[in-house]
Amino acid sequence: MNNLKPSQFLMIPGPTPVPSIVLDAISQHPLGHRSQEFSAIFASVSKELQALAQTKGDAFILTGSGTLAMEAAISNTISPGDKVLSLVTGVFGERWANIAQAYGAQVEKLECQPGKAVDVDQLADRLSADKEKSIKAITITHNETSTGVLNDLRQIAYLTKKHGALSIVDAVTSFGAINIPMDEWHVDVMITGSQKALMLPPGLAIIFFGARAWAAQATCKSPRFYTDLSRYKKSLAANTVPFTPNVSFVCGLQKSLQLIQDEGIAIVQARHLKLRTMLRSGLRALGLRLLVDDDFASPTITAILPPENISVADIRKGLKEDFNIVVADGQESLQGKIFRIGHMGYVFERDILMTLACLHAVLKKLGYEALQSPIQAAVQTLSIKR
Amino acid sequence: MNNLKPSQFLMIPGPTPVPSIVLDAISQHPLGHRSQEFSAIFASVSKELQALAQTKGDAFILTGSGTLAMEAAISNTISPGDKVLSLVTGVFGERWANIAQAYGAQVEKLECQPGKAVDVDQLADRLSADKEKSIKAITITHNETSTGVLNDLRQIAYLTKKHGALSIVDAVTSFGAINIPMDEWHVDVMITGSQKALMLPPGLAIIFFGARAWAAQATCKSPRFYTDLSRYKKSLAANTVPFTPNVSFVCGLQKSLQLIQDEGIAIVQARHLKLRTMLRSGLRALGLRLLVDDDFASPTITAILPPENISVADIRKGLKEDFNIVVADGQESLQGKIFRIGHMGYVFERDILMTLACLHAVLKKLGYEALQSPIQAAVQTLSIKR
Questions:
Q1: A226–B102: do the CB atoms touch at under 8 Å?
Q2: Which of A63, A227, A267, B378 could form a disulfide with A246 if both were Cys (CB 3.0 to 4.6 A apart)?
Q3: Alpha helices in chain B (DSSP H)
Q4: Is B195 within 8 Å of A224 when comparing Cβ atoms?
Q5: What residue in B sits closest to A194 (Cα-Cα)?
Q6: Which residues of chain A neighbour B242 with C-beta distances below 8 Å?
Q7: What value of ipTM does the predicted structure carry?
Q8: What is the pTM of this model?
Q9: Among A26, A63, A328, whose Cβ lies nearest the Cβ of B202?
Q10: Which domains does chain B have, with CATH numbers?
């Protein structure tokens, strides 16, 4: 016998909550992918994405997970033997290195301690030391999902451009929630996924590809077919795609981009900053330690250390069983050491307050006494203008 | 001002109509992809797919289009320099050759006239001539979407196995609608997509991978990451996937597989055969010529030549404008020369009758006099047991 319980609420770093209007759009009968109706939608979505990235480069929609777009970024720019410098701040930074290695690149990693951001001075030194300019590309995770670190993409892309290398950027958990003026910042390749700040379920990936990336593509020797961006470029000119796309999700994306436009992109981004501040204040009031310093704390993901003698598993179990709220464990070396709360996309102040209140209750049940009321602390930040 | 009109009805070879219960499933809030709920669904769907393919090999669900699964088939089995014999009956047969070429294979094509099936004797001769057994794999399109030809997969896979080569099969528009006992027929690798007989929108691809394919994979040197099936194998053992999947569509797939099971797979397949017979009888009553002989006519797609002096474009336009029914043009060299009606998945007798009746009306409006009533001819076939 099952008791009635509230629907599962995702406070993980993706999939994230999806607005009803988007769910309605994806539940319509699929359009034919070669129909005029679909082409019109496809054209408008592609232009809207380009505008959101503030780029004159191309925006391609791939049917697949974010990792597919990461592979497309590599398979279109890196040939076997090319030197790639991977800036690794966690699991997803490591993934760039693994993909580049799979394509035969010589990968050098610049690794950070978990919870730390890329040290821009260290990067500058490493590039200065590369006198013969052998580093062809730099890979970087803008917002590291495994730790909740926001890297200084502007500085990193600037140094990379100055060095004459390509910047290849994972913006899966930042795009839409954080301002990334791609061209102004000299970002060459950027990828994202549908299930984060774009407020869709997982299933679409997006890759932005600038002029310098096309120059690299022209001589790139890596094999590719489904990820061959030349095919997408040719099709995009006719407002279509080379392979049957997830038409349902493209229609959903049109709706979610409209929601972002209606709210106003600056307000969307300010909301994410506000949620970060609220959540961090509330967590500190509870007496919990945060993995990441304020200086480079992500506006979309927060990693928290459990109190002494209370396990991450018990906290997650309590939130799930008592409130049907899902938060994420740490990944790989951080498994069981941190838990992660996602706050990107269709997430609002009331969700943060609910999560803090429920976490408070769960910790109390587990025998932990909070320092202060997390709600009071979080509510206080609401009046702060930022 | 728009008049109210019926919803768009797809009689194309995919996307195909989607049952409401499936649309409802995909419009639920997405589950977390690492949740127990999702793992349970994922495990059952994977097993159900395996059962449908009648294989002891693996069934992997990839988030992507069918072409992604084709690429996975090649990137996991073919190394640069390997010899691949591509049996080409149309656009999708050609695609196998192109993907294998992109991965550096030595590709030899055995090409058929458009509308013809692979000549099994010719294949047997070609294999006999390969004394040194240099042909490592054969690619074949079971059901060629561009022409509506059903190839004799059983014979082709048998000859391939006997020769010691791998059979790599595109079953995108046949899987589910046509019986394919994968192991009994010695098929090594088989791929399909969600938007055909599986009755979902496009967005998922499925790859079946047998024991001999794994042996080839162990020494395969092609670069791959998102399509690396070793990663999927490892994850499947824990009822999960290596990269965030389209959880919504996996939940939809659970529903559509249940519908297939409820109808009974033998009845589903008999229905497709019946629809083929109905449609072909009706079209012939109209006096239209069919591209493909009865002997190898597809149970899921029918290609039709337009009457003299009437263009494919006008027929498609008439069906779209007057009835909001979409049928497909020919592809590439067959563009404007044929039109194609898809009848796979969630398609029933009434849909065939409706399409024939509307086609009758459109042709009449375009000045063409039908030979006989297509409805009468189609209805007569309903009593035929097959």
A1: no
A2: A63
A3: 20-26, 36-52, 66-75, 91-102, 120-129, 153-163, 211-218, 229-236, 247-263, 265-286, 312-323, 349-365, 374-381
A4: no
A5: B246
A6: 67
A7: 0.94
A8: 0.95
A9: A63
A10: 9-16+264-381 (3.90.1150.10), 20-261 (3.40.640.10)
